[in-house]
Structure formats: structure tokens, C-alpha cells
Design goal:
By secondary structure, the protein is an alpha+beta fold. It is built from 5 helices and 4 strands; from the N terminus they run αααβαβαββ. The protein has a domain of 115 residues. A 4-stranded mixed beta sheet has the order 1-2-3-4. The termini are far apart.
Length: 174
């Protein structure tokens, strides 16, 4: 007895339908990317957008510099969750660009900022000032501002030696 040969499998139909759908989606995706690129490019040519992007870049650079400035590690060691040391002249120049008002670039010296999360103890401003002086040896007066949970808790002007400066009329030290 001879086994009967099994019938040949049915001939496969082409899978062109799946490839066509995939191709349509690829073309649509490419067109969407191209359209987005054109819109972004055109918007980036607008003078106001160029200015905003330039100011944002300068602000980011200023913040990066402030977060890695001399003295920030030591300020964190005495209890600051975040410590920033801003060059007030650079900060004023960026503010002048944002506000288009002028006069902000007249700031001088350094602004030492200590931020502490709510619920954590805040180091005294005098301690922050002496810590900054030991770490950075400033040559000019500076300002210290400390906040807990976003609300200012202490601030003051200090001499380069770390001694609290005389308060100017209208701005009492806290």
C-alpha cells in the first residue's frame, strides 16, 4: 500500500496589504515631522522668540553657575537643602534683558541664597555669612537670604569680613 501524497499547501497570497499600510503610516509620520520642523524653524526666526530663547539660555547659565559657585558645598554642609551664590551684576544684566527697564545691572557684589525644605531647621544668617566667608573669601560686601519652604526667614547685608553691615534706611535686617 502506497501512502497517498499529501496535497500541496495552498499558495500564499502576497502580504502586500500589510506593507502598504506600514508604508502609508511611515509617509504620514515623515510628513508630520517635516511640518513640525518647518513650524519650529519659522517660529525660531521671530525676533521675540530669539530674544526669549537667548534670555532663557543666559538664565539657565546663571543658575548653573550659581549652584556650583565657591561656597555652595559648605553652605549645604551647614544645613541648606539648596545653596546658590549669584553674581548680582550678572543677575542684574539678565533682569535688564527680561524687563527692558534698565537699572537692574547696577547691582554689585554677591547674593548668597540658602533654601531649606519645610520642616527642617534653618541655619542663622550670621552662620551662613561666616560659612561663606571661610569658603569663598569674598573681597566685597554681599547679601545673604535664607528661606524655609519658599518663605523668607532671614536676610541681611554683610561686609566681606562676614560682619553684618549697617542697615540702610528702609531695609531693616531680619
Amino acid at each position: 500500500m502506497n501512502p497517498q501524497p499529501s496535497p500541496a499547501p495552498p499558495k500564499k497570497k502576497g502580504s502586500n496589504g500589510c506593507l502598504m499600510v506600514l508604508g502609508v503610516f511611515a509617509v504620514l509620520g515623515l510628513l508630520a515631522c517635516l511640518a513640525t520642523g518647518v513650524v519650529v524653524w519659522r517660529k525660531s526666526q521671530d525676533p521675540d522668540v530669539k530674544k526669549a530663547l537667548a534670555v532663557a539660555g543666559k538664565g539657565f547659565s546663571l543658575l548653573t553657575k550659581a549652584s556650583t559657585a565657591q561656597g555652595t558645598k559648605e553652605l549645604k554642609a551647614v544645613g541648606c537643602t539648596q545653596a546658590l551664590v549669584f553674581d548680582r551684576a550678572e543677575m542684574g544684566a539678565v533682569l535688564d534683558e527680561v524687563l527692558d527697564a534698565g537699572g537692574a545691572a547696577d547691582f554689585e557684589g554677591v547674593l548668597v541664597v540658602c533654601q531649606v525644605n519645610a520642616g527642617r531647621p534653618l541655619p542663622a544668617c550670621d552662620l551662613l555669612a561666616t560659612t561663606y566667608v571661610k569658603a569663598a573669601a569674598p573681597t566685597a560686601p554681599f547679601r545673604v537670604s535664607a528661606t524655609v519652604g519658599g518663605a523668607e526667614s532671614c536676610s541681611g547685608e554683610y561686609e566681606a569680613s562676614g560682619q553684618r553691615a549697617e542697615t540702610t534706611p528702609g531695609s531693616p535686617a531680619k
